[in-house]
Protein: BTB domain-containing protein
Amino acid sequence: MTWRASISYFNFMAFRHSQVSVVADSVNISGQSNAIQFKVPECRLSDDLGLLFENQKFSDVTLSVSGREFQAHKAILAARSPVFAAMFEHEMEERKHNRVEITDIDHEVLREMLRFIYTGKATNLEKMADDLLAAADKYALERLKVMCEEALCTNLSIENAADILILADLHSADQLKAQSIDFINTHATDVMETAGWKSMIQSHPHLIAEAFRALATQQIPPIGPPRKRVKQS
Structure:
């Protein structure tokens, strides 16, 4: 065996007896005289896409609302929202002119929705959860929609319970709707005295019926097997 072959064989055997492990974002190689560790930089995808939204570089579509304009990227909008995807995929005006006119969303709400599309975060959600819920429902942003439901549920009160129930029903927010009905039934006497409840009787009678059905279901005792009669001697 030549000296080169001897060195190669020695290195091979040394590597066989070493152990390679990946812990968190680093790589460790043990069994050697000096441990080697590679530090993998943390993922900055959310921050990078957020910066792309803010600096508007390489944008190819304009979203216009109330005289304000936002520059965005079709690929990102389409990847995150099936509504935007359909808009840009088919021969619609938005695709032809690279412009989307929005008339039913406030510009601050639209900005927050776009920030969520790019970063997955909504830092101002608590301030506009009701309007953001409507926007998320319109553009089929399911995660954002449930985040809004959770925020609204946290702020349920006797005064706003009826209004939140109407909002949940309007935007098919099933989890929020169920929680609202449960809250109303728990505080039925007080909620029924509010202006929101009295208004809902006229505007959304089907929700009144749903709330009463749920209340009745809670109050009906469970039906068990019939008792056996004891024979008397």
Observations:
- Strands lie at 19-23, 26-30, 36-39, 61-65, 68-72, 99-102.
- Residues 102 and 139 are 12 Å apart (CA to CA).
